[in-house]
């Protein structure tokens, strides 16, 4: 079967702030990254801070092009597939002038869904994520974790088959995190959604993923591709989970040591 997402030899650099770019200094962020996500697969990108994970997501979502390399979605170049990726950015980017419910339906609205229908769908998911009493609140009144959940609801509601989630659990407490992990797993298992998940948490990676790509420190490259062939549901205390976590941590530690040398 053709993979959903195929990234080949992706490279990206940015002009270093203050150097003006042209003739100035550049920051090499991604160097020759290749990876694939199969239809219905849950793939995690794990890597140290600053290695280019969000940059890769931005490219996959079509926000800007790579300097080199190719991104294919269902076999077609990314340019043709813009708007086909549901993307939750690391910064939650809620619109401050819209209530929670109307932030949640933004993606559906853009896709042309009738507002009443969209709201009903959003209400259901907001309730599952523990936000039922905050539908009419404005984002500025919410905690960081609540804002993150609203952004996640907004992304999940988009009827798109590739979900790119950039550290969606960063601000969540352990209980909420576990509940939402369970929800994501069901999305994948029951609805066959394809998920590219970004984290620097090895436990998230092992509990959720079919495969994990471990990235190097900047410039980000793929250091290792680790399949996680453990049965589900998975608990953090399972022997297999503990073993895989230790393996991923060892890889990450090497990278951190490299980065801060
Ligand atoms: N638009 C941009 N212009 C200039 N530099 C950028 C831009 N976007 C990202 N960078 C730089 O690229 C590097 C990688 O950033 P990125 O956000 O992709 O890392 P990350 O792996 O997502 O890190 P974290 O885990 O902390 O979220 C950083 O040094 C950042 O300063
Ligand atoms: Mg990031």
CA(first)-CA(last) distance: 43 Å
Helix share bin? 25-40%
CATH class wording of the domain at 5-84 and 161-259? Alpha Beta
The assigned structural class equals alpha/beta
Q: Please give the CATH architecture of the domain at 5-84 and 161-259.
A: 3-Layer(aba) Sandwich
Summarize the helix and strand pattern as letters: EEEHEEHEHHHHEHEHEEH
Compute the gyration radius: what is it? 19 Å
Low-confidence stretches: none
Bound molecules: adenosine-5'-triphosphate, magnesium ion
Strand arrangement, major sheet: 6-7-8-3-9-10
> How many DSSP E strands?
10
Number of helices: 9
Largest sheet: 6 strands, mixed
* Average of pLDDT: 91
Q: What would CATH call the homologous superfamily of the domain at 5-84 and 161-259?
A: P-loop containing nucleotide triphosphate hydrolases
Determine the strand fraction and express it as a percent band.
15-25%
Provide the CATH topology of the domain at 5-84 and 161-259.
Rossmann fold
Overall, the morphology is globular
């Amino acid at each position: 079967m053709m993979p959903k997402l195929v990234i080949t030899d992706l490279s990206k650099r940015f002009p270093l702030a203050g150097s003006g770019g042209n003739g100035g200094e550049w920051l090499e962020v991604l160097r020759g990254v290749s990876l694939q996500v199969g239809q219905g697969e849950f793939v995690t990108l794990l890597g140290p801070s600053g290695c280019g994970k969000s940059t890769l997501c931005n490219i996959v979502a079509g926000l800007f092009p790579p300097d080199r390399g190719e991104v294919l979605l269902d076999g077609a170049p990314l340019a043709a597939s813009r708007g086909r990726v549901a993307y939750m950015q690391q910064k939650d980017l809620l619109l401050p002038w819209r209530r929670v419910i109307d932030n949640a339906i933004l993606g559906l609205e853009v896709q042309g869904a009738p507002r009443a229908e969209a709201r009903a769908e959003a209400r259901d998911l907001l309730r599952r994520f523990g936000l039922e009493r905050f539908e009419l609140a404005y984002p500025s009144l919410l905690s960081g974790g609540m804002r993150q959940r609203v952004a996640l609801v907004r992304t999940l509601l988009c009827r798109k088959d590739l979900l790119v989630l950039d550290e969606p659990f960063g601000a969540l407490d352990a209980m909420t995190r576990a509940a939402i992990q369970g929800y994501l797993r069901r999305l994948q298992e029951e609805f066959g959604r394809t998920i590219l998940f970004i984290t620097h948490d090895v436990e998230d990676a092992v509990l959720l993923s079919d495969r994990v790509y471990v990235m190097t420190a900047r410039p980000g490259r793929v250091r290792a591709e680790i399949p996680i062939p453990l049965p589900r549901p998975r608990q953090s205390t399972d022997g297999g989970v503990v073993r895989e976590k230790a393996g991923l941590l060892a890889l990450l530690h090497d990278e951190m040591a490299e980065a801060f040398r």
